[in-house]
Fold this protein.
Amino acid sequence: MAPRLVRLLRWPRDHSPVKTLGEAPFLNIFDPAVQSDVEAVVRRLGAQSAVLRTPIGAAVVGRAEVQALLRNRAMHSSLLNLVRLQGVTDGPVYEIAAASLLAKEGDDHTRIRRLVSRSFTPRAADAHRPFMRRLVGELVGGFREKGECEFMSEFADHYPVQVIAHLMGVPAEDHPMFARWGDALTHVLSLELALHRDLVQAALEEMAGYLGELIAERRRAPREDLVSELISARDGQDRLDDRELLALLGGLLFAGYDTTRNQLAVAMTIFAERPVEWTALAADPGAAAAVVEEVMRYQGVVSVVPRVATEDVEVGGYTIPAGTLVSLSLAAANRDPSAYPDPGRFDVSRADPEPHVGFGGGHHHCLGANLARAEMQEALPILSASMPDMRIAEEPEWRSPLGGISGPLRLRLRFRPAPNPSG
């Protein structure tokens, strides 16, 4: 029986026949010339077509098309496809990827989201804002009076992972271990997993041992922390088992730590070139929510969400065959001129802006979005007040474009030394 064709969006305005993916403009994502200025290349090709052909499948770059596919149940997470594509088909790395919420679909995915969603509401994130503020103050206090810092090693590498560890009730002395595991596990979401497989496997084994003991201890003696909340979460008689708990907590670490630290670093590069906006944020901390949304629209660190079509899907005048790896370009959707006038301009004062898709969408919308928003909303106003006249001291070194998450490896900043407000 032929697969059912899922039609998305309207028939092309000129009523031309639906084309095959092979007829779409070609985007060579592995070409160094493309990687050096992918935004310009996608913008040029996107003017011709909302659907592009790539060496490993398809890329969708139109905002309406991206939004439709994010919501479409025929589009499944391609995490396991990308893992297998790199030769990882069994063993601990494959098993943790398969057990993660990012890889689950259908009833399994819905069940786990239903069980844990209460722990990731805006109200749940808000409860940790006082800790976030204290932590930001402590970290900034280490370099405020120097007038310079290497932002990654002195701030970004510590802040989000310590927030996650705090949520889990992990002792402060164990935070460096969490950071080390987070650094290794980020490769699970990249196209460079095969290069780092041994590193990832070692981190997974250490983390699984630690979290297994933590889960067992919290079962014996619950506390007021996220681990205890997830253990007690239930829907009737349904509860998470230890394997599901381990995958969920591990997923929070490798999906939540790296994204937030890099988004904060990218925000600093944006503001280093916009001193007026940086000073305005220091004067009006209440603008932080709008600032965070515009930062993520303008330059989100997750530029592409990978999916796989489980049925033939018609979108943008093309048929994407079942089994195709589809890269949904969040970056292109967030710079679509049909939604954002002058989309290449950073503007926190946009009136009633369209919601960005930096946290994805549909049933796989980022579970930790509220926590990430709270972390950035608390950090950026304190950073702006503590680092006046901020500028980039030397050209940043950026991560590989195949790493799944963008951001600087190192970011050296200078600013006018600021006294400790309590001193």
Q: What stands out?
A: The CA atoms of residues 222 and 357 lie 36 Å apart. The longest strand covers residues 304-309. The chain has one domain: 6-152+258-414. The domain at 6-152+258-414 is CATH 1.10.630.10 (Cytochrome p450).
